[in-house]
Specification:
The chain is mainly α. It has helices spanning 3-33, 37-49, 54-61, 65-77, 99-121, 128-141; strands at 51-53, 81-84, 94-97. The chain has a 3-stranded antiparallel β-sheet.
């Protein structure tokens, strides 16, 4: 096997392992909160901003507008978020965390924090900055 081919296979293996890890996280958040990982991210994004325009979410997640709408609908139906329009302008929909959603925000934040902390402990302290920069660089490339 050539050196180049070996690296190509390593890159593909990393991508597939990354995908598997994300699907594992997805299942966990779906089991714990009956939400997708992106829906949890949206809840935390709205919480951090207090309220957001719907169009901000598809830019934040880098997904199509139709995907954003499908993702938001269950959050509205299940009472995690509320929608509102400012000054009666129906062209721009805004979203905020509902009272029901506020009860779940801390749980979701804690789950993300625990997941990040557990992962952090698995990276040797002296290699963390290098590891994080390498992962960021790799993600920029792909």
């Amino acid at each position: 096997m050539t050196y180049h081919k070996q690296h190509v296979e390593e890159v593909l293996d990393i991508i597939f392992q990354w995908d598997k890890a994300l699907r594992t996280l997805e299942r966990k958040f779906n089991k714990d909160f009956d939400l997708t990982l992106n829906q949890c991210r949206v809840i935390l994004y709205i919480y951090d901003k207090n309220y957001v325009e719907l169009s901000q979410i598809h830019r934040y997640l880098n997904v199509d507008k139709s995907t954003t709408t499908r993702m938001i609908r269950p959050l509205l139906v299940n009472g995690f978020i509320d929608k509102f329009y400012q000054f009666g302008d129906k062209r721009k929909m805004y979203l905020r965390i509902s009272e029901n959603g506020m009860e779940h925000v801390e749980q979701i934040k804690n789950e993300f924090d625990q997941m990040a902390y557990t992962s952090l402990l698995k990276v040797p302290a002296g290699k963390r900055d290098f590891t994080f920069q390498t992962v960021r660089d790799f993600l920029k490339i792909i």
